[in-house]
Amino acid sequence: MGKLVVLTLLGAGLALIGERLVAFRQRINAYREVEPVEPQNCHLIEGLENGAEDIDILPSGLAFISTGLKYPGMPDFAPDEPGQIFLMDLNEQNPRAQSLNISDGFDRASFNPHGISTFIDKDQIVYLYVVNHPHMESTVEIFKFEEQQRSLVHLKTIKHELLKSVNDIVVLGAEQFYATRDHYFTNFFLAQLEMFLDLHWTSVVFYSPREVKVVAEGFSSANGITVSPDKKYIYVADVLAKNIHVMEKHDNWDLTQLKVIQLSTLVDNLTVDPDTGDILAGCHPNANKLLLYNPEDPPGSEVLRIRNILSEKPEISTEYANNGSVLQGSSVASVYQGKLLIGTIFHKALYCVL
What we know:
Blueprint: H1 2-27, E1 42-44, E2 54-57, E3 62-67, E4 84-89, E5 98-99, E6 101-102, E7 113-120, E8 126-132, E9 139-146, E10 151-158, E11 166-173, E12 176-181, H2 188-197, E13 202-207, E14 212-219, E15 222-227, E16 233-238, E17 243-249, E18 255-262, E19 266-272, E20 279-284, H3 288-291, E21 301-307, E22 315-322, E23 330-336, E24 339-344, E25 350-353
Parallel strand pairs: 6-10
Antiparallel strand pairs: 1-25, 2-3, 3-4, 4-5, 7-8, 8-9, 9-10, 11-12, 12-13, 13-14, 15-16, 16-17, 17-18, 19-20, 20-21, 21-22, 23-24, 24-25
């Protein structure tokens, strides 16, 4: 009798694991192949060889690019090199990527930049907020941008118990921002188990010097985050659920979900086209190829444009798609006056004139 119970429990356990494995492979699009959609006027950006995980473009056309991310479970082609912030002036005829110097006193050796967001104050001073993972922890670094010197002056490091496993950030005021947590657990094994079991325990956190709180939760893996041009709505990408959440922002900074845009691809970072209000999403068409990286069969890239996101029937189109032969693991796309930048987690970056 005892053996029968053991065998029954073992069989039930194996069946559960098998069911979870099948569901997980479906969630990460393990069997999907990419149909190419490639604009004619595109080229790889010289000097960006170790990813361009996030991009934020100022109204002036200056683009900040975070590079060199070391992220657990992802490929890393330069494990001994610290991360950097690059700048491109998209007003130039042939824009080039330039590494920005960072002021003394900041630990550049452990710099591991992830999501970024800019804020311009009433005096037109530009501040760059950077999600940083020094020694695989999570902090938010605040820099002041010195345009003439093409440099960043480090001002402050923000840490908080709610700011764990931070992925992306959107700044709405001086030291006021929303941040996404892409995992509940910080332990690598538990984080992988959380992802495998699809626990939906991740969240969006609001931070200010006066108050820090969870304002939205129940995501499978909250990832990219951005704000509508009128500052009334917050858009959150849930990468493993393959969707975008449209959230209404309240005066007390709380968020209320209005709708969910379901997609067929894993959505990473989000940006807004300043001319149209359209959402651009850097996406992973097949995340299995990210998790089990094979240079002979690399992960592809995909960029979607979502028009009229607040309407009953948003229009979704593909701006770019490649099977990995040119660009691997796209994480972000950002546009400025007909010029498109596409970044990746660990690979290269692409510049296109639309």
